[in-house]
Task: inverse folding
């Protein structure tokens, strides 16, 4: 850039714009827009600014970069050439419209080189990797590692820049290997009558990927087991086939089984793959003979027999069979296992059933005419085996039970009521038809009063009515009426039963009255009257006793004692172990009350002269027994009685006092404090008691000495 003014003045040039004075500073972008300015030294513009267009020419200064350093892909084994595998791509920062940014791809190496070194090829422009040869086999090579190179300058190795990446190709499994049994024949053993046992083990090999549908084996029995005794289950770990017996086998029926087994995979074989001849094998299963228990061919066995057959009757032969009859010569013995009524026995050798008691259909052990007994058959094998069999005997009914009258007690009105005609009766028979109803009811000929007073009429086949004859009156009471009832058996059986009939007066509804019920209990009119009189007398006595009690209670309240009932202390004399008074008594010399150390001065006294407050030396006697009077009529008698008891008891300390003083020890020099004579006969005036009120009136009357004395 140059201004034509530079001849006259000095010019300074500058540029502005992005890449010049604007970030990025001093960096030109492609097609930058720049503007040039011409100013003088004073900064005056001498030329108009002009736009400068600068084009940055690209140069190959960037290598191709792969998006990933490692690419993963997969392809089925056995794929045909040209099968797409995976895609890789690289980016070049240079201008992609020029050779600087044009990237081309190629495979540098393949590991392993099996079956050939160049199993794959890559599209140089797109980066798609495809197979180029046949022979991919997962069982031989399961994975390939390929190094891919990307070069710019259109792949020119002399001028272009390059970079590499790794492509890992996994060969996926297809079912191109059929399972093959390791042997053409297998063998095993199975005990008879056993189930859920593994009797043989089939081993198989399969080159496909383990534990995949292409490897998992499925076994089938295609012949040799028409009844389905065996099945084959696959071991999920080893893929082996386990031959299992699921239905019991019988040595006597089949001593060996020849099975044909075929094995296949869970997934179908790949297209074009044929099954191997080793997918089929024969399995021989030998049956082991064991001692089987005897069995009863007819179990349970049903027979029909009449009840009532005598003991020793042969009913049937209940024999068992030995499954081992062809292989073992054994003997069977019979025994009884369960016989609830103990009616049967069985012959030990031939199984003949005999009765030991009479069979009774009406027994509690018979249900719905059936009697069941269980028997045991045991062989002499080693070890011994046994089987059970049930014998069911259907007992045919015979007429061996007479009917019984129902009810046994009833009541009837003493006079024939037009609404109530009698007692409905029926009968119960333990037998069944035709040995039960209809029943025939009759009155006996003896005694003659039965037919004279009573009558029986037929209601239906099983019911009759017992009643009084018309215009017959019976005294109230209980009558025993005999009735003969017969069943319909051949020959019929009869029973003479007695029904107790209460004859009683009835109301209009036909119900016994209260008086009638008493009379019907068997008491006459005189007895009833006597009972009523006794009841009246008893009630009168109770009433009089209650009135007497109330009168006594009233007298007790009107004639009070000397003190209130709450203060009455009769028969309640208390004993207190008191030792003295309170604090005010502490100044007294209590030593005067103590007993001296020695009793010689007491013993040496002449007879009859002694201190009555001292402890007697004679053996103590019991208090006189005085009668217990709950409520004495005279308080004076009560007091005098207590006084006499105290006077007559020489051992009662202090003899004439109701207080009891404990022993105070020895050393007392004081005289006796018991100087009062309770039985004094001196005269005393008690008239002052009249002034003390009504509570002391009784004492005033007793001791006052008035006119009432």
Result:
């Amino acid at each position: 850039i140059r201004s034509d003014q530079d001849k006259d003045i000095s010019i300074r040039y500058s540029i502005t714009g992005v890449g010049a004075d604007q970030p990025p500073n001093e960096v030109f972008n492609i097609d930058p827009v720049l503007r040039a300015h011409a100013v003088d030294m004073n900064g005056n513009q001498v030329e108009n600014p002009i736009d400068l267009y600068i084009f940055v020419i690209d140069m190959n200064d960037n290598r191709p970069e792969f998006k990933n350093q490692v690419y993963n892909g997969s392809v089925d084994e056995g794929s045909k050439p040209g099968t797409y595998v995976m895609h890789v791509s690289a980016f070049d920062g240079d201008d992609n419209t020029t050779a600087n940014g044009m990237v081309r791809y190629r495979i540098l190496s393949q590991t392993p080189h099996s079956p050939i070194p160049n199993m794959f090829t890559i599209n140089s422009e797109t980066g798609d990797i495809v197979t180029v040869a046949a022979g991919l086999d997962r069982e031989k090579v399961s994975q390939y590692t390929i190094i891919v190179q990307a070069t710019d300058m259109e792949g020119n190795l002399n001028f272009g820049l390059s970079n590499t990446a790794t492509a890992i190709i996994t060969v996926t499994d297809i079912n191109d290997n059929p399972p093959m049994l390791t042997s053409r024949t297998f063998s095993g053993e199975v005990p008879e009558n056993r189930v859920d046992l593994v009797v043989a083990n089939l081993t198989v090999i399969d080159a496909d990927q383990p534990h995949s549908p292409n490897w998992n084996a499925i076994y089938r029995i295609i012949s040799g087991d028409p009844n389905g005794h065996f099945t084959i289950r696959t071991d999920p770990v080893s893929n082996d086939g386990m031959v299992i017996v699921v239905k019991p086998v019988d040595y006597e029926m089949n001593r060996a089984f020849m099975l044909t087994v075929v094995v296949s995979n869970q997934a179908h074989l790949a297209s074009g793959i044929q099954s191997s001849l080793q997918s089929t094998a024969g399995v021989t299963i030998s049956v082991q003979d064991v001692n089987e228990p005897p069995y009863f061919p007819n179990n349970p066995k049903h027979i029909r027999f009449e009840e009532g057959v005598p003991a020793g009757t042969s009913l049937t032969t209940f024999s068992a069979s030995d499954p081992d009859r062809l292989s073992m010569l054994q003997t069977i013995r019979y025994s009884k296992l369960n016989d609830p009524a103990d009616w049967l026995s069985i012959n030990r050798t031939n199984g003949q059933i005999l009765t030991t008691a009479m069979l009774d259909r009406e027994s509690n052990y018979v249900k719905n005419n059936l009697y069941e007994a269980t028997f045991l058959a045991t062989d002499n094998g080693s070890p011994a085996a046994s089987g059970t069999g049930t014998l069911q005997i259907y007992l045919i009914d015979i007429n061996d039970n007479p009917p019984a009258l129902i009810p046994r007690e009833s009541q009837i009105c003493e006079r024939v009521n037009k609404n109530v005609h009698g007692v409905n009766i029926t009968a119960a028979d333990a037998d069944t038809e035709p040995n039960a109803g209809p029943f025939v009811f009759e009155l006996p000929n003896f005694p003659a009063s039965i037919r004279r007073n009573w009558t029986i009429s037929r209601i239906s086949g099983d019911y009759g009515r017992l009643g009084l004859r018309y215009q017959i009156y019976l005294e109230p009471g209980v009558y025993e009426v005999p009735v003969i009832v017969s069943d319909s058996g051949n020959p019929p059986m009869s029973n003479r039963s007695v029904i107790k009939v209460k004859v009683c007066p009835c109301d209009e509804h036909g119900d016994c009255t209260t008086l009638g019920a008493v009379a019907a209990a068997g008491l006459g009119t005189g007895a009833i009257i006597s009972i009523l009189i006794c009841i009246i007398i008893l009630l009168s006595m109770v009433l009089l006793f209650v009135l007497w009690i109330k009168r006594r209670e009233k007298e007790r309240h009107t004639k009070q004692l000397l003190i209130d009932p709450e203060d009455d202390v009769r028969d309640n004399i208390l004993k207190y172990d008191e030792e003295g008074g309170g604090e005010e008594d502490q100044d007294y010399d209590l030593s005067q009350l103590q007993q001296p150390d020695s009793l010689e001065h007491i013993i040496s006294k002449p007879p009859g002269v002694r201190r009555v407050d001292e402890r007697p030396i004679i053996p103590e006697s019991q208090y006189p027994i005085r009668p217990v009077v709950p409520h004495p009529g005279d308080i004076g008698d009560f007091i005098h009685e207590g006084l006499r008891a105290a006077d007559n008891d020489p051992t009662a300390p202090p003899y004439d006092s109701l207080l009891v003083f404990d022993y105070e020890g020895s050393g007392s020099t004081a005289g006796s404090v018991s100087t009062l004579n309770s039985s004094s006969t001196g005269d005393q005036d008690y008239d002052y008691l009249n002034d003390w009120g009504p509570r002391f009136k009784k004492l005033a009357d007793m001791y006052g000495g008035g006119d009432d004395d």
